[in-house]
Amino acid sequence: MLRAPVDSLRSWLPPWGLKLEELGPIGLESKEPAIITSQCTVFAETEVVSLIADDIKLADIVSGINKSVAERIISQVKKIRWEKDIAVTGGVGKNTGVVSFLEAALEMIKRVPVDPQLVGAIGAAVIAKDLLTDGVQN
Asked: Which of 82, 83, 93 is nearest to 118 (CA)?
């Protein structure tokens, strides 16, 4: 469900030659995150290109990207009921910048597994094992 934000981040990396895991630490260096208002990845990417052209600091652009991704996640989270703690899973959990924005906005303790990008695959494997053990094969 929340795959799009990670795909968005990945699409913005080539101009800088950055790796996905570098976005968190770089964004955390920002004092003033750039404003990225578009929810559409294509339009948001256009905003990022404009920010680059305007010589906005890399840390501020990256922080703005992280904040934008966090805001998209938050808007989805607010549509459901959640408990006190929220676990951040998937590739976005490796981005300390996004996780930091999520923690601040949701004002709750967050949990991030050591390898958050593996959680979905592990869950699918457990379900498959249970289905096979119960003799149900689809």
From this structure: 93
Give the pTM: 0.77
Rounded to whole angstroms, the Cα distance separating 89 from 68 reads: 18
Identify the CATH number of the domain in which residue 40 sits.
3.30.420.40
Residue 53 lies inside a defined structural domain of this protein: yes
* 124 part of a folded domain: yes
Q: Whole domain around residue 97: which residue ranges?
A: 3-133
**Could you tell me if 33 and 100 are in contact, meaning their C-beta atoms sit under 8 angstroms apart?**
no
Nearest to 26 by CA among 62, 2, 52: 62
DSSP-assigned beta bridge partners for residue 117: none
Q: What is the pLDDT of residues 1-34, one digit of tens each?
A: 344 444 555 566 656 777 777 889 999 999 999 9
Q: Which amino acid is at 44?
A: A
Residue 50 lies in a domain: yes
